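Field reference: "sequence" (input) and "structure" (output). Example, histidine kinase:
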Amino acid sequence: MGTTSVQSAVARRTRVDWFVDFACFGLALLVAGWLTWLSIERPVPGPVLIADVALGGLSCLALWLRRRWPNAVALALSPLAVFSVTCFGPLVISLFTVTVRGRLAVAVPVAVVQWATGLLFPVVRPEWQEDFFWVEMLVSALFTVAVLAWGLFVRTRRQLVVSLRDRAQRAESEQRLRVAQARRMERTRIAREMHDVLTHRISLLGRQARALQLRPGIPSAEIDRAAVVIRDSADQALRELHEVIGVLREEPAEGPPDRSQPTLADVPELVAESRRAGMRVRLDAGGTDLVAVPAAVGRTAYRIVQEGLTNVRKHARGAAVVVTVTGAVGVGLTVEVRNPWPIRATGAIPGAGFGLVGLTERATLVGGRLEHGRTAVGDFRLRAWLPWPA
């Protein structure tokens, strides 16, 4: 992490920062007082002692600027080490600050400068010169290295904490995005379900209504049967619409939806429902075990058959329809809806025109393929192959 990002993160002092700054200032004053007491026991001239104490006090006050200008404060205090013994505490704290907030390439030269100025201190202040001068310089060098190491440890730990915090925030943000995306995908899927289900139900209503309109003299028994189909289809359409609207709310309820999705085993009932509505539909399952088909594949196959029957009612009214379902485990499932090519499109039931596009997307999502169009013998065929894994 660069110096700019570290400094910007601490540009405004928090309560912890204020506590640390007061602690550093107090510690520096205590060290300066202790060294002043040691100076009094030595043959130090009065003016020299006063100047030493004054420089030490100024050094302690300079620590309040170390957060904003760590390098400048450290370099400004370094020459004072040639004369003042009471600035030892602020020197150590300023070097630690440079190491924590700056780069190692800057902290090492600052440490070398501060240590080198200490070599001149016994020359300027001979009353502090000891017999083991070089031993003291070696101890001072080791102490400087220890301050650098401590500063690097604190700096690395802070960077790790900031990195973990950023990573946690990114993970939380990505989780929210994944949840939002999952909701959008679920709502898109339900919108497709609404298109398939409601179009099928409404087409049944339209067929029965047209039959009643075009045949005013039909027997009452047939009228009653058509009324039952219309009522059941309307009730079912309302239930489906209520379920879809409930899931599409802004804040969906927690937990899985209560609505059970149709599978391939429900295709015979779908065909029987179309027959009750007056369609000529024949189902040829070819001995295929409809119950054994996986739920995801079976649901897609059901929607393909449903959309195919709906299209027949919309564009080829009265045509005979053959629904063929064949397949086996490991081979795949083939679903086909075939009817004679309509002489003219009725256009009586409006549609969005995206039914086949949605079916193609459904088949692709489960790893299958879908094709539709006119055959060589003049029929319209909607055919899909879907995987049936072992």
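Residues 270 and 306 are 7 Å apart (CA to CA).
Residues 1-10, 250-258, 345-352 have pLDDT under 50 and may be disordered.
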